[in-house]
Structures are given as structure tokens and as C-alpha cells.
């Protein structure tokens, strides 16, 4: 039976209470339970024990990250969680330092990961889908969703995890289409996660 760690990286604001990200986590949990998978969860804005979180990464076959896009990145509580947990695991549990050796100090930077699983990101964003992958849209200038998330992808590559296809819910504040997002999400989880375990 496979083990899935779900991390909810939402940070509460009065104008963004986290209900949508929590709904995605609940829908995912229901799908995973129906598939008889083991689940552990973390909410980064809540208190956590760093050593226990490192152990969750060691336990997990798949790490699932649910987060809003926050100033072109993740929330500050999610970033703090990563700083705490990843730093604690960096010297022998999650990775062997930065992957370089004293014999070859110029090679293999970032390739010291000790994990063998996969990860998936699910992102809620106020940007419309049309803002991405379009050189005529000046802000992202043709960049894709995964281009924007490159630092996150590199963080998980650092620990040896392989990516599964990213899910995006677009325009969630200005022009939401939540029921369609939920339907797309369920399909995405079935096709891009459950069928690839």
C-alpha cells in the first residue's frame, strides 16, 4: 500500500481564508482513501514538530503540495516549513548535503537527494490560464506555470523526488469556476497520480 503525504501550504488572510485549498485537500483525501492509500497531512500555518515532518518525508511514496500562488511563489508559512524541515533533513536524512564531494567539488551540485518517491503540486492562482504560455501577454512573457514554479521543482529535485504533472486552478478570485476546477482536479488525480503509482 502506497503512502501519501499531503501538505496544505495555505496561509490565512481575511480576504483568503483557505477554504478552497482545504476543499482540494479534502477531495484528494477522499479519492486516496477510496483507493486504499495511506495518508498523512500537514498544515504549514499550524504548529508542527520538525523531526516528525522529516519522518513523514521518509515515509511518503508521494508528497502532494496544495498551495496558493502567493506573490509568484508560496506563502510565508510554507516557506518557513520548508526552511525548518528541509534544513533538518539536509545532512543525511533527506539528502547528503548538496551532493558534491571533496574529491569533485565542482560537480553534482544539488544531486545529493536520498528520497526515491514522487511529488505533485496543486496550485490555486488568481491569474487566468491565458496569462501563461503566451508571449503576447507581457507579464509572464510566454512563461509556463511550471516555469513560474521552478524554485519549488528544484527544491524537490534536491531531495531526489520526481515530479508528477502540476495542477492549476486559475482565476480563483476574480473569475472563479470552482465546480469545473473540482471536476478537472478529480480527473487529474485519477490520471496523473493514481494511475502512475
What brief labels describe this structure?
alpha/beta; 197 residues
What would your notes on this structure say?
With 197 residues, the chain is α/β, with parallel strands linked by helices. The chain has six helices and six strands. The chain has helices at residues 19-34, 50-59, 76-89, 145-148, 150-158, 178-193; strands at 3-8, 38-43, 62-68, 118-124, 162-163, 167-169. Strands 1, 2, 3, 4, 5 and 6 form a six-stranded parallel sheet that branches. Strand 3 (62-68), helix 3 (76-89) and strand 4 (118-124) form a beta-alpha-beta unit. Helix 1 (19-34) runs parallel beside helix 6 (178-193) and helix 2 packs across helix 3. The longest helix is centred in the first third of the chain and has 16 residues, at 19-34. It is globular. The termini are close together.
Q: Per the principal axes of the C-alpha atoms, what is the gross shape?
A: globular
The proportion of strand residues reads: 15-25%
**Mean pLDDT level:** 96
Tally of contiguous helical segments: 6
How would a textbook summarize the main sheet? 6 strands, parallel
Low-pLDDT runs of 5+ residues are none
Rounded to an integer in angstroms, the radius of gyration calculated over CA atoms is: 17 Å
Give a short summary of the structure.
The chain has 197 residues and is of the alpha/beta class. The chain has helices at residues 19-34, 50-59, 76-89, 145-148, 150-158, 178-193, and strands at 3-8, 38-43, 62-68, 118-124, 162-163, 167-169.
